[in-house]
Structure formats: C-alpha cells, structure tokens
Amino acid sequence: MGFLYSNALNLEETGLVQAVTSRRLDSKADRKRFYDQIRLRPEQLVYCRQVHGNKVWVISRYPETYPLPLTEADAMVTDQIDLVIAVFTADCIPIFILDTQTCSIGIIHAGWRGTYKLVTTEAIQSMQEHFGTDPANCLVHLGVSIQQNCYQVSQDLADQFERHFGPEVRTIDNKLNLQAANVQQLVNAGVPFESISISPLCTACRTDLFYSFRMERERAGRLVSLIRLLPDFD
Ligand SMILES: [Zn+2]
Predict the structure, then answer these.
(1) Ligand 1 mean position to 91 CA, how many Å?
(2) Superfamily for the 5-229 domain
(3) 216 CA distance to ligand 1 centroid (A)?
C-alpha cells in the first residue's frame, strides 16, 4: 500500500516543518494508516469551522484545551512548535506558509469565496503583525486542488474575478484560475514568486486519489492538510 498523502516539498526540505495533504481516506482503517504514516495522533490537530471567509485565527500560545473547532475562520497562523494546524478541502486550495526566519507557519482554506475576499493576503498580514514576518522569507505551497481546466464558473463570477484580479485569472469560457488569484495575493504581499510552488494535481480529474466536491457533491469526503513546526530534535 502506497503513501496516503502528498508533501509540500518546498517547505519540508527546510527540515523545519511537516506539511502534508492526505489522499482519499474512505475508511476508518485508511484514516488510521494515514495518521500512523505521518506519526501523528489525530487528537493533536487543531482546526477551525470553515466558513469561506477571510478571518485568520492567530495562535501565539499553546492552547491547553482544544474546544474544537476553535472558532470560525479559514486560516490559522502560529509560532508554536509542534502544534498541528489543519484545514479540510475538496477542490478548494489548501495553502501552506512557512516563514523560515521567525519560524512561524500558516495554513489557509481558499475556495473562490475566500480567494475573492483575499484570505491569503490577510494570512500574510497577520504573520507580519503577530510574528514580525518578512514575506520575502516565506515559502508557500498551494496544495492539491481543482485546476483551471475543470473549474468553469458563471460568466458573472468570472467577470467579478477579472475585475478583482485581472484577465489572467479566467479564460474566455469562464474557467477560473484560483491558484493564480492566490499567487497574485502572495506576490503583492512580497512573497518571492520563486518561493511559491503549486501542486499540478487536480481534485476533479483524480477522484481516484482525492475528493472533489464538484464531481462528487454531497458524497465527497474532505482531504486533510496540516502543518506543524518540528521540534529541534525531530
Ligand atoms: Zn481537472
């Protein structure tokens, strides 16, 4: 049996973090094998109630108790070692952030609504404000998500996106490039383009490996994406 996850390699190569997105975990046994493979206990995860907004939840102290979900938010940032922050997606983009200088991290759930509301911009600003992050020191990975070819939306929505992010985020037949709209937010905030990687895998094309809300609707499960700062001895 192969690995039940993919890694945010550009972040993990630093040795500072663990950053992964699960594959399909259809059974309890799959979920257990996934957590075993990444050496995590599921109860180590903290997460928020995702509402497709732009609110960022800052964790600057290790929570002693975890009433989950922590709050309503679509991004989390922290500088706490070993705290596992997670988002759940099926087509939306899980975005991983690592500031290699201050050793702070973030994770974002970015669908079209959050993207339109600039949730990625908000997450970077929040790291600047709370941890003194310089975006020039950030590495970012946009994880497995629906790719432009499979993401046709209404003319109205494509027009709105064009007004907001420019013509390069849509095609003439109204296919949206959500990844590009988030990369634009990162680059505008000062993250170097070459520090950003994007998974080419498409959730809608590969329902054998991942979940796609667009393809599977209510039957779709959710991929879990998580990041944590590793302790020095790890
Ligand atoms: Zn596709």
Answers:
(1) 10
(2) CNF1/YfiH-like putative cysteine hydrolases (3.60.140.10)
(3) 13
How does pLDDT run across 157-210, given as a tens digit for each residue?
999 999 999 999 999 999 999 999 999 999 999 999 999 999 999 999 999 999
Residue 200, CA atoms < 13 Å, CB-side half-sphere: 0
CB 143 within 8 A of CB 6: yes
* Global confidence as pTM: 0.96
- Residue 102 CA to ligand 1 center (angstroms) comes to 36
Q: What is the structure's pLDDT at 3?
A: 82
- At 62 the pLDDT is 77
Q: Distance, CA 174 to ligand 1 centroid (Å)?
A: 15
CA 4 to chain centre: 17
